[in-house]
Design goal:
The structure is a single chain. The protein is mainly α. It has helices at 22-44, 53-79, 83-102, 107-117, 120-123, 127-142, 149-179, 195-207, 219-228, 232-243, 254-270, 276-281, 289-320, 328-343, 347-350, 356-371, 457-474, 495-501, 507-510, 525-535, 539-568, 586-592, 595-606, 617-636, 642-646, 654-657, 667-685, 690-701, 709-717, 724-731, and strands at 182-184, 213-215, 374-377, 389-394, 400-407, 419-424, 427-429, 432-434, 436-441. Among the domains are: 7-146, Glutathione S-transferase Yfyf (Class Pi), Chain A, domain 2, CATH 1.20.1050.40; 180-244, no CATH class; 355-513, Collagenase (Catalytic Domain), CATH 3.40.390. The chain contains 30 helices and 9 strands. The strands form 3 sheets. Strands 3-4-5-9-6 form a 5-stranded mixed beta sheet. The protein has a two-stranded antiparallel sheet with strand order 1-2. Strands 7-8 form a two-stranded antiparallel ribbon. The longest helix is centred in the middle third of the chain and has 32 residues, at 289-320. It binds zinc ion.
């Protein structure tokens, strides 16, 4: 009866993705925001004495409803972006950000929550409810609830501006990636590149009515060139194009980085924190930037001998291949050749054993045997693309825990990478269990002709990884949505995902699904042995790369950002009168931005002409060069030669500048320490041991943020985390003799 109602506001469990159009986005989200705001105002103004039900629980319900109504539009921007959809989303993005940042600054709401916290009921809360109240009070204070009005106002402006800048950063990456195309005329230049990748490049050229092959910058196109293409010049060209996306031209991200860093530092300072990392990590396991930095440093020190060994090996093998001086565009290629020489194994050789459908089937069997969850596909029509799958997941006792969508293959209008997202957070309710709803997305190599989609082992790991996130969401038994599932600390959230990857390295687990897609032959023993031997291959190199990202991330936010903020004011044109229009700044906004920037412009004006951040163009350009130099210098200690540091991909590093990993990149390795450690228990008790599996579900997987992760870890492991299992897994025994980097890397 409600067909004319905006599909974003539908209350059905399954989201009507097939009916959501760009024109629904702005009105749908605005209605959702208005209803949420009305709910919050009513809660805050309630005359009844505050109780758990009418205060924290009611607020949780309001925010969960809002998330459930706005998440689908954000998801469509990530997987099925059109210019109209992007514009519509950007139009309301500042309003959404403003709602969330204003929420903890709602004076009457804050008064109401504090009044509840002072009741005897609140003081007697224990367990998840007690933690929720404590975390809520903390979140309000962290958001500035106790700040004087002018500081509150500035804080909100900074957050709105940051959200817009971060969104623009990722749009630039998407656009720069989509715009690039390199035509290749002679197939000779593609010597070494696997057939499937060549056919895709050929297909892309044909699509555009071109002769030859077309190379693009989506990762499935880049990877085979860097790893396999014998033509060094072609590798150089693709590598340089990929690494330097958004360094100049129409999608230049350099000045956005300056603004983002300066504003993040200002945000932390307004809230009384000593730098952005301390603000960011206060509610995480690491607690402070210093502790995260010490974690990186310790691992860097323990990893360096292995890294030095790996670099020397790469250099030696490059020479043996007749490659003069190892360059950044040679690393993946030489590594692949060396891996092949040593283990006679490359990613492509394993693909035939990993057809996607069978991998999923195996994954579901493992999850059923070990954790007691059953996964069943269910065909549905309301999807955003014909490739999208839909599944339901049941608990040991038959309870429907949740459902999820899958979207595996790249498309022009889809974001890169692999990720999981939540749409609906359910959990135990008075009338039974409310199921969860989520999605997993990836960009795997699509089916080729009549062959199914075939994955590399790394892609199999990715599948298990994202499914681990999904299980964390769907297995949640936490009654409070904002403390449920994946709503946990960033340095804890990767434990359930990375843990799942461990099964892809176990023979018994692989036997469930690794079979040749044509012959049905299981993965040969010899190949399995080589896969394992190859696992630690270049472990020092890979681990150091992660350490370098984590270290540079912290350095940018801890060392550079305060300096940038410190110089913002002095950068204003000296002849400008206070409050005068800023011709030098506005055009930058309009030139670079689409609707997003203009929407912020409107918001700024609607705030009564109050000053917003005044960016001086000349200063931005100067500082953006400073940022690039800083990044290069900091990457240097992790680089075999200066050119590796020079070609850092900072301007397309969406994790740091538009994702949630700002000052948090360290958490990848942090949670690897956790997952390697947790898996030791499965190792010793049996990888399909249901009892161990259910103990893990009970202590960790179903618990969300209902207790301190330090306590959850202890509950399952009986002790604190130990990094020994990770070092053993990634690096193995110590290198025989210390090797030093010889001089042939010191080219410009
Ligand atoms: Zn993850």
């Amino acid at each position: 009866m409600n067909d004319t109602r905006n599909p974003l506001l539908a209350d059905d469990f399954r989201i009507p993705f097939d009916r959501i159009r760009a024109e629904h986005v702005a009105p749908g989200i605005r209605t959702a925001l208005a209803e949420a705001q009305a709910g919050v105002d009513a809660l805050a103004g309630d005359d009844a004495p505050p109780t758990w039900e009418n205060t924290p629980a009611r607020l949780d319900e309001i925010t969960e409803t809002l998330t459930r109504r706005t998440a689908p539009a954000g998801h469509l921007v990530a997987v099925a972006e059109t210019p109209a959809l992007r514009d519509a989303y950007n139009e309301v993005l500042p309003e959404m950000t403003a709602f969330w940042s204003r929420l903890p600054l709602h004076t009457a709401l804050w008064r109401r929550i504090r009044a509840y916290a002072a009741t005897s009921e609140a003081r007697a809360l224990t367990g998840a409810r007690g933690r929720h109240l404590e975390r809520t009070l903390d979140e309000f204070r962290r958001a500035g609830a106790d700040l004087p009005p002018d500081r509150k106002k500035r804080l909100e402006e900074v957050k709105v501006e940051l959200a817009t800048l971060e969104q623009r950063f990722s749009e630039n990456v998407l656009d720069a990636t989509a715009e690039y195309a390199l035509p290749v005329l002679g197939e000779g230049r593609l010597a070494g590149v696997p057939d499937a990748a060549r056919r895709r490049a050929r297909g892309r050229a044909q699509e555009k009515g071109l002769d030859g092959w077309l190379l693009t910058l989506d990762y499935p196109s880049v990877e085979p060139i860097l790893k396999y293409c014998d033509d060094r010049e072609l590798r150089r060209e693709i590598h340089a194009a990929y690494a330097t996306r958004c360094r100049e031209g129409a999608h230049d991200n350099r000045t956005l980085i300056v603004r983002i860093l300066a504003l993040r530092d200002e945000l932390a300072s307004i809230l009384g924190f000593d730098g952005f990392p301390d603000y960011r990590l206060a509610d995480r396991m690491a607690r402070t930037g210093a502790r995260a930095g010490a974690f990186e440093q310790d691992l860097a020190q323990r990893t360096r001998p292995y890294w030095t060994r790996d670099v020397a090996e790469l250099r030696r093998h490059a020479s043996a291949l007749g490659i003069d001086g190892l360059e950044p565009w040679d690393a993946a290629y030489v590594m692949e050749k060396l891996r092949r020489a040593r283990f006679d194994l490359d990613d492509e050789m394993l693909r035939p054993y990993f057809p996607l459908d069978r991998v999923l089937d195996g994954l579901f069997q493992i999850v059923e045997r070990t954790f007691g969850f059953t996964v069943r596909p269910r065909p549905i029509d309301e999807v955003w693309h014909p490739d999208v799958g839909y599944y339901e997941i049941f608990d040991e006792d038959g309870t429907l825990l949740g459902a999820f969508y899958t979207d595996w293959f790249p498309r022009k209008e889809k974001r890169q990478g692999a990720w999981m997202n939540n749409f609906i957070t359910g959990g135990p309710r008075a009338d039974g269990f409310a199921p969860h709803l989520g999605v997993i997305c990836a960009n795997f190599t699509p089916p080729d002709g009549d062959a199914p989609a075939l994955l590399t082992h790394r892609e199999v790991e990715t599948t298990f990884h994202e499914f681990g996130h999904l299980l964390h969401h769907c297995a949640s038994k936490v009654e409070i949505a904002s403390r449920a599932g994946i709503n946990v600390a960033w340095d804890w959230v990767e434990l359930p995902s990375q843990l799942m990857e461990n099964w892809t390295w176990e023979r018994e687990a692989l036997d469930l699904f690794a079979r040749h897609h044509r012959t049905g032959e299981p993965l040969p023993d010899d190949m399995f042995r080589r896969l394992h031997a190859a696992r630690r291959f270049m472990g020092g190199w890979a681990q150091m790369r992660q350490i370098s990202f984590g270290t540079v991330d912290l350095a940018l936010h801890e060392e550079l950002a305060p300096k940038l903020r410190g110089s913002v004011q002095t950068a204003l044109p000296p002849d400008r009168e206070p409050g005068e229009g800023l011709p030098g700044n506005r055009p930058t906004e309009l030139k670079e931005g689409g609707e997003g920037a203009r929407a912020v412009g409107r918001q700024e004006r609607s705030q009564g002409g109050r000053k917003v951040t005044e960016w001086n163009e000349a200063w931005l350009v100067r500082e953006s060069e400073h940022v690039m130099r800083f990044a290069r210098d900091r990457f240097l200690e992790f680089s075999p030669s200066p050119r590796f540091a020079e070609l850092h991909g900072l301007t397309s590093f969406t994790h740091l500048f538009s994702g949630g990993y700002a000052a948090g990149y360290y958490s990848y390795l942090w949670s690897e320490v956790l997952d390697a450690d947790v898996f030791t228990r499965f190792r010793s008790e049996g990888i399909f041991n249901r009892e161990t599996g259910r103990a893990y579900v009970a202590a960790i997987l179903s618990r969300g943020d209902s207790a301190d992760p330090v306590e959850l870890f202890r509950e399952f492991m009986g002790r604190d985390p130990d990094s020994a299992a990770l070092l053993e897994r990634n690096l193995g025994s110590a290198p025989d003799a210390p090797e030093t980097l010889d001089g042939n890397g010191g080219t410009t």
